[in-house]
Design goal:
It is built from 14 helices and 21 strands.
Length: about 475
């Protein structure tokens, strides 16, 4: 006898991983429900990528006006109206939440059910107490703010990356604890709007050192204080907060922002009832097919502790749904291929990567060669009067095959799609050197740095 279920697939969450899973299942003709206890759309559209990048763009316009390299074309910048910028940001979020989530769900024909999901057993959840059964589940609830263990933090008012983007008045000074991409983007956002900013923490510690140094110098040159130590204590002072570091440095500012990591959002799911295991950090453990310790339950996106990018979440959500529906002949087991994975920090200059760093390549058993090109040898940077940048290419020493690319500079995020294609296609430095590159573009840096492997001078067609 075949069991009867309310739905073929129930997806908990409504962000990138959840939407991809639901769309995939509907394309296979299956019945689907999304369960969301909070605001539709998950982290990216509501409190992550979209709001942070639109505010960064606004702040960048002001910074560019104040730091114009062309004195013959004068610009000006007034004071910041943060309330206006936040309102504009919220309007964009509301539009995208409808156009990219609610309207898409309606077009594909799946229900979004409001309520909190809690597992009753391995095939049933309760949604606000009402049982709902499914043949398979995908948990895609994302991740939330992780606060560090730090003396005094519980007693001090502080901002997070979420609450910082809800501020309607600009702090005179701000300390940001955390040197990863969230901390750096938030730090530069406020610095470019006019706050005096201090960063405590190592600057992009996993990045190539030659590339991280470009970003570090850029922050310092722009007037941001960088203290690459651990913050160990915080305390309130009149009208502000004081932070102490591991070496005894004491820093004071009006506001404090914590950007030290993320933690899985699994509260309320009652995972034990479904037999779903988590790791020591609280992230749901999955195999290479996104299956949890319960063969009926899959998980995808930030809740699994993988690379926390919305496009990775979407790929994992698609794979999870495919694997949950393996009764269909066309649904052979699917797994996410991370080869050439790109990432971008949207500061100015941007820091962008694709594939492996030199350290990762060596740890992976490769004998590798590397070359670094400074942007003083990039014609696009010269005409922009902005040579603050560098690009590093990592290649297999035996074959010349490109393993990874890292860059810092204006617009370098735009070249990472080409870099990803080259890595996934197994292209060599020789092939890149001999491939067309449009003159006076940032993408030309790919051909120029590849040429350094072959003792070619970093020159273009004309300069």
């Amino acid at each position: 006898m075949v069991a009867e279920y309310d739905f073929d697939l129930a997806v908990v969450g409504s962000g990138g991983a959840a939407m991809a899973a639901a769309i995939t299942a509907r394309q296979s003709g299956k019945t689907v429900v999304l369960i969301e206890r909070a605001v539709l759309g998950g982290t990216c559209v509501n409190v992550g990528c979209i709001p942070s990048k639109t505010l960064l763009a606004a702040a960048g316009k002001r910074h560019a006006a104040l730091n114009n390299p062309f004195p013959g074309a004068p610009t000006s910048a007034g004071t910041t109206d943060l309330q206006s910028l936040v309102t504009q940001k919220d309007e964009l979020i509301e539009h995208l939440r409808g156009a990219k989530y609610a309207d898409v769900a309606a077009a594909y024909g799946f229900e979004i059910r409001a309520g909190e999901a809690s597992f009753i057993d391995d095939e049933t959840v309760a949604v606000d107490g009402v049982p709902l059964s499914a043949r398979s589940f995908v948990i895609a609830t994302g991740a939330g703010i992780a606060l560090p263990e730090m003396a005094g933090l519980d007693e001090v008012e502080h901002l997070t990356s979420t609450s910082a983007m809800e501020q309607t008045s600009l702090p005179e000074s701000l300390i940001v604890i955390g040197g990863g991409y969230v901390g750096l983007e938030q730090a530069q956002l406020f610095a470019n709007l006019g706050s005096k900013v201090t960063i405590i923490g190592r600057i992009v510690p996993a990045a190539e050192p030659e590339i991280a140094s470009v970003l570090r110098a850029s922050f310092i040159d722009a007037g941001t204080t960088v203290v690459e130590e651990h913050a160990v204590s915080v305390s309130a002072v009149n009208g502000g907060v004081t932070v102490g570091t591991s070496s005894g440095v004491v820093l004071t500012a009006e506001k404090l922002l914590i950007a030290t990591g993320r933690t899985a959002r699994t509260d309320g799911l009652n995972l034990d009832a479904a037999g779903v295991a988590t790791d020591e950090r609280g992230f749901i453990t999955v195999d290479d097919r996104q299956r949890t310790s319960n063969p009926r339950v899959f998980a995808a996106g930030d809740v699994t502790g993988g690379p926390q990018y919305v496009y990775v979440a979407a790929a994992a959500g698609k794979a999870a749904a495919h694997n949950a529906l393996q009764d269909l002949p066309e649904n052979a087991p699917t797994q996410v291929d991370y080869t050439g994975l790109p990432a971008v920090i949207f500061t100015h200059p941007q820091l962008a990567t694709a594939g492996l760093t030199e350290a990762e390549a060596i740890a992976g058993g490769y004998q590798c060669e590397c070359r670094v090109l400074g942007f003083e040898d990039l014609p696009r940077a010269l005409v922009n009067h902005d040579t603050n940048g560098a690009i590093k290419m990592v290649a297999d020493a035996g074959t010349g095959r490109i393993l990874g690319l890292s860059a810092a500079g204006d617009g370098v995020g735009e070249i990472m799609l080409a870099a990803t294609y080259a890595i996934r296609a197994g292209m060599t430095t020789r092939q890149i050197t001999d491939t067309w590159a449009p003159y006076l573009t940032v993408s030309e840096s790919l051909r120029l740095v590849a040429g350094l492997f072959h003792n070619e001078m970093p020159t273009s067609c004309c300069a």
